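Hi R.,

Here's the chain you asked about this morning:
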Amino acid sequence: MTRKKKYEPVILERSDLLAVENPARYTGGEWNMTIKEEVTKQIAETGETQYVRFAFCFPDVYEIGMSNLALRILYHVLNSCPYVWCERAFSPWSDMDHILREKKIPLFSIESKTNLADFDILGFTLQYELCYTNVFQMLDLAGIPLLSSERSEEDPIIVAGGPVVFNIEPMAECFDLVMIGEGEEMILELMALMKQYKDSKKTENKMSKEDFLLQAEKIEGVYVPSFFTVTYAEDQTISSISTNRKGIKDKVSKRIILDMDTASYPTEMIVPNTRVIHDRAYLELFRGCIRGCRFCQAGFIYRPVRERSVNTLCEQGVALERNTGYDEMGMLSLSTSDYSKLPELTDKLLTAYEGHHTSLSLPSMRVDSFSLALSQKVASTRKSGLTFAPEAGTQRLRDVINKGITEEDILSSLELAFEGGWNSVKLYFMLGLPTETMEDVIGIAELVRKIEKLYYEIGRRTNSRMRKLELTVSTSMFIPKPFTPFQWEKQDSLDELTKKQMILRDRLRSKNIKYIWHDLDTSIWEVVIARGDRRLGAVLLDGYRAGNIFDAWDECFSLEKWMPILEKHGLSHAFYATRQRDDNEILPWDHMDCKVKKSFLLAERDRAYQAIVTPSCRENCQGCGAAVFGGGVCYESK
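And here is the predicted structure, written out as tokens:
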């Protein structure tokens, strides 16, 4: 790729934009986008800038990336820093990818159209494992070497963050450093160091990249993969994970933001010029989850629960509506119905929005905390369907996964909803959960049939003419994830999962029921890289070079392409996916510390085998370890 003058904007021809599916993915110019004129002026006058230039990279298309709250928060945090200019970049879809390669045009930032290779630092947010090869795509299109060991002192520092990085080992050789946990404070500490690093280049005492990484590693939450060495035993399991520099911490602890009311939050969010996946403004009610569903990684890595106050949320909600023009406000968290003051919050927001035609959007609700009155208030401006996630069809299996709800909870909540006029409901379940039997699978169909029957019984009982019931049933596959009680569990085989899907399909045939199932092939591959080790790095790199990108898209993913590459490197799907881990096995992520004790996870797994439900954090603290942070739900008065 031919390099032009540093910082020179990349030029896309009009014909190039007209040749792609959605030109707005690449043009920028959105409302509330940040342009720092002082930086462009410095570059125009001197060809250089004293500012740290940060490219926030999302390894998927614009419409998905701009729906990500972490991007919006950190974009605001970084651009609030007086010596940093943060811009955005996204994976170009195949049509633009082809144009960039054919015309040797480097991948560029949205704001200034600067080649990504000209930035000081590239920060990738990794929200799901199937985006890994898109990281390679973005680096490759910018002309940046794909592996940390191959990059020079002149190349940008490549950083990763997001939930996936709690096991970043399959991509460890790509990234210079990784940020574990919540980034608002950590990233500013890193930027202060980055400013010193950049400024030193103009002095006699230049910092090397090694010097920078040694200093960065001292920041709590920062992990430098190259400072660790992993060895393997004859049976392919890990025999050791050790540091290879003096003074390096041997365990990396996650960072969190303890006080959510003082945490930085964007009330002037960018408003895209094209429709995105979640096309609304957002309020983040709290972080963490009190429930402890045993399959849910987010429920453990984001502990403890920390809430924003009603007053803070109302102030942010009013400002967001005013500054963005959005007429829908999403209320985000892992379990929104568990926000301790949800009725008060919705009342105050609806009062503030009265006469504005601005609605509130609630995500999936827990059936044991469903409120008809609350749902009717929210639906008073815009009525949509209801979404619940029972996850399992039998009480035994719901207890195994610690869902904490009963069939009575499910049916009574839906009875209230149907009586309140709702006729559209989505239900989410999982297949392949630990200890699952065919009786549990059939239990999903039986529960759905009970719900279908309940709807029409209400019509007869109330002598009402009921609208057609729209019951959508969706099943995903269980993926054992790091830092959960099920991290040691095996995944069902492809044949077993296929059989379960087909049994459900046959038992859910009804004009009122739509059954949607998740693609099995992507689930089979996801579990490999979710619990993978560093040996998968070469597999992922070869997969990228073979053309495997956008694996999170069903139409792009091909398991048939991945399996031969895995085997070529002497590795197997069975080793990573369908093998039960021993309790004492060294796991690839054992040098990460999310502050939930492994002993607690093992105890929760034992309780799962006995189908014993663990109370929520608000009911009874179980001593998971998250109290070490000194705040949140762990210190609420019980």
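One quick note: The longest helix spans residues 438-462.

Cheers,
M.
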